[in-house]
Amino acid sequence: ADAALAARLQAALDNKTKPVGALGRLEALALRIGTILGTEQPVLGAPQMLVCAGDHGLAARGVSAYPSDVTWQMVENFLAGGAAVSVLARQHGLALTVVDCGVRRDFQPRPGLVSRRIAAGTADASAGPAMTPEQCAQAIANGREVVRALPGNALLLGEMGIGNSSSAALLLSRLAGLDIGLCTGAGTGLDADGLARKREVLREVLALHAGATAPLEALAAFGGFEVATLVGAVLQAAQERRVIVVDGFIASAAVLVAQAIRPQVTQRCVAAHSSAEPGHTLLLKHLGLEPLLNLDLRLGEGSGGALAWPLLESACRILREMASFESAGVSRQQ
Amino acid sequence: ADAALAARLQAALDNKTKPVGALGRLEALALRIGTILGTEQPVLGAPQMLVCAGDHGLAARGVSAYPSDVTWQMVENFLAGGAAVSVLARQHGLALTVVDCGVRRDFQPRPGLVSRRIAAGTADASAGPAMTPEQCAQAIANGREVVRALPGNALLLGEMGIGNSSSAALLLSRLAGLDIGLCTGAGTGLDADGLARKREVLREVLALHAGATAPLEALAAFGGFEVATLVGAVLQAAQERRVIVVDGFIASAAVLVAQAIRPQVTQRCVAAHSSAEPGHTLLLKHLGLEPLLNLDLRLGEGSGGALAWPLLESACRILREMASFESAGVSRQQ
Questions:
Q1: What are the residues whose beta carbons fall under 8 Å from the beta carbon of A135, sequence distance 6 or more?
Q2: B70 touches chain A (CB under 8 A)
C-alpha cells in the first residue's frame, strides 16, 4: 500500500507545472510526508514542539562549557517565551510543551510545563550507570504517554540538558561503532583544552560501560532522562504515523536509540538540519537521513526543527495547491 | 555609522540566551538585515515578490528543453495561482507582481500583472545583439520604476523566460571571466546531447559579441528583457536600502550586472539558495554571497527566495524577541 501511494505521489509531483524534479529536495520531502500521513493531499495539523529537559551527573566532570544550573534557567526561559525555540515556535504556530524529565531543581506547576521527573538529574556516568534500568524504562514510558496525549500529526523534537552532548556522543560511539573521538565535539562552546578533557572523560565512561552494548543498556549507562523520554516520544509518534521532525545531535541520538529498537522509525522522520557538532553528520549518515538545512547551528532546544518547519508546510502545499500541466494548459518538455 | 550599528547588532546577538554564535548562519543573516534596514530591531514589512518575464530569440536555437510558449503559459499560471512561486508566495504572505518585460504573446490587463513590454521577445543573440542599447536602458529604467512604486522594505527577485539560463551563463562567462563550458548547465532539463548543443551555441554567441565587455554592452548583447528589468529593480532596491532576496541562477545574473555597475548592491542582498545549475555556485562565489538553502532546486520563478523567506523573518525575530542573559537570569559560560 505504501509503495502504491508513493508511486501516486511521485506521479502527482511529476505532473505539477515545473520540470520533473525541479523542486529538488522539496519533492523528496513531499513524498515522505505524504507517505507518512498516507495521503496525496497531506495537511500538517496542530504541530507539537516537545522540549524534554534533564540534568546529567556527568556534568560535574566538566564536560560542558556551562554550569548545570543553566538547564533549569533555560526551562524558565522557554516558558517565559524568551528562548530561541520559544521565539521560533511562536513564529510558526508550533505548540510548545516543556517536559521536566529530571532537572536538578523543582518547578512550580504552570501552563506549558509537564512534570515527568525521574530524579534530580542522572547519576554520574563516570562512576556507574547514569540511570537504573527501571528509571530508563520509566522515562521511555513517560515519553510515550506524553505524546499520546498531544494532538496533531507532527512532532518536533527538542531538548535541554547541560552535558547531554556527552550522552549523544557516547550513544553514537557505542551503537554505531564509531571512535568516541570522532563523535565528540565542543557542544555549547568548549575551548580546545575543554574538548580534549571531554574526550578523555568520555573514553573513560565508554570503557567503564564496555558491556552496555544493547540499545537500552547503553541508554541507561549514558543517560539522560530527557534522551530516554525522547526515545519514548519517537517510538510513540512513529507508531501513530506522525511526522517526526528531528533537530540536532541530541534529538538525533534519541532517534538512534529508537531505531535500534524499531528500525522502521526513521521512515517517519525528517532531519531538520545538520549541526556544527561533528558527530551529528556521522549520526545522520548512520540513520540514512538527509538534513534539510545546513546553517551551522549548535543550539539544540528544537531550534533547527522550528527553522525547517516552513519547508514541510511548503512541501505539502506544493502537492495540494500547484496546478498540473493539464489544468494550467502548459506545454510539456519537447 | 554602518560599522557602529554592526557592532551593536553583534553585541545584541552575543547577549541573547544561547552560546555565542550558536545560531550559526542565522546570526550572520540577522546582522545583514539589521545593517541594511539600519536598526537593531528590524521588521520586514510588505515583502514584494517581483517576477519578471520575457522571451528570448535565442530559444529558436534549441537551447532549452521547453518551447517559448511556456513563458506566456507560465505567466498565466502565476496569475492564476497555480505555479510554485504563487503557492509559496501565498504561504508566506508575499505580494506577487508579474511584469511582462517582453513576452512573445500579449496579455489582457489584469490585477497582479504589470505591462512593461519592450518587444515581443529579444532578437536572436546568435545573429546580433539581443537588445539595442536603447531597449536595454529602457528595461533597466522600467525595473527601477516598478520597484519605486512598490511598498515595503524587502524585494524578492523572480523570473520566467524560456532560454534565460543561456543569458545568465553568457553574462557570467563574460563578466566573471569564466569559461562558458563551466557556466552552462541543463537549465530546465536538457539531456546530454541538448547540453552539448547548448554549450556549442553559447560559445558561438560569446565569440560573436567578443567586444561586448562592459556590463551594459554584455547585457544588451545577451539579453534578456526580464534580466535587464531585474537589473534596474536591484539597483533601485539597493538605493532604497531594501533587503534584496536573490533567487537562482538568472536572478543572480541580474545582481551580477548590477554589481558590475554599482559594487555596493551586494551588501543589500541575501542569497536564498544554491541551485542545481552548476554556474550558480560559481556566480554566488563571484558575488561573495553565501546561500541559505541548498535543496537542489532548479526552477527559478523566485521559488527559492520564497522558500528561504521564513529564515529572514526568523533572523529578525531572534533580534527582537529573544531574551538576554540578564533579562532571563541565565548564567554565562564558565
A1: A118, A119, A220, A225, A228
A2: yes
> Cell triple for residue B86?
504563487
Rg (CA), chain A: 20
Q: Determine contact: A303 vs chain B, CB below 8 A.
A: yes
Residue B157 phi, psi dihedral angles, 5° rounding? -90, 130
How many Å apart are CA B242 and CA B269, to the nearest integer? 9
Best mutation target among A290, A326, A333 (most B Cβ atoms within 10 Å) is A333
DSSP letter for B323, please. P
The alpha carbon of A27 is separated from its chain's Cα centroid by a whole number of angstroms, namely: 22
Full DSSP string of B183-250 = H---TTT--HHHHHHHHHHHHHHHHHTTT--SHHHHHHHH--HHHHHHHHHHHHHHHTT-EEEE-SHH
Write down the pLDDT at residue A89: 98
Would you call A25 and B296 a contact, using CB atoms and an 8 Å cutoff? yes
C-alpha cell at A82: 524568551
ipTM of the complex: 0.98
Cβ-Cβ contacts under 8 Å for A283 (sequence gap 6 or more):
A168, A172, A176, A249, A252, A253, A256
- Cα B135 to chain centroid distance, Å, stands at 21
DSSP SS3 for A156 = strand
Q: What percent of chain B has pLDDT over 70?
A: 100
| Among A residues 160-199, those touching chain B with beta carbons less than 8 Å apart | 188-189
A325: Cβ contacts below 8 Å, ≥ 6 apart: A15, A16, A17, A331, A332
Structure confidence at residue B205 as a pLDDT band (50, 70, 90): very high
Q: How far is the alpha carbon of A201 from chain B, nearest alpha carbon, in Å?
A: 18
| 3-class DSSP assignment, residue A179 | coil
**Banded pLDDT at A188 (limits 50, 70, 90):** confident
Q: Give first-to-last CA distance, chain A, whole Å.
A: 34
pLDDT at residue A334 is higher than 70: no
Whose cell is 545522520? That residue is A284
Strand order in the sheet with A113-115: A113-115, A95-102, A48-54, A154-160, A243-246, A269-271
Shortest distance between the Cα of B240 and any Cα of chain A, in A, equals 27
Between chains, do A318 and B87 touch, taking CB under 8 Å as contact? yes
Task: Using the predicted structure, report yes or no on whether residue B160 has a pLDDT greater than 90.
Answer: yes
> Which residues in chain A have Cβ-Cβ distances shorter than 8 Å to B327?
82
Q: Report the alpha-carbon distance of residue A279 to residue A211 in Å, rounded.
A: 22
Half-sphere CA count of A66, side-chain side, radius 13 A: 27
Instruction: Give per-residue pLDDT as tens, A50-86.
Output: 999 999 999 999 999 999 999 999 999 999 999 999 9
Measured CA to CA, the distance from residue A293 to residue A287 in angstroms comes to 17
Asked if residue B334 has pLDDT above 70, the reply is no
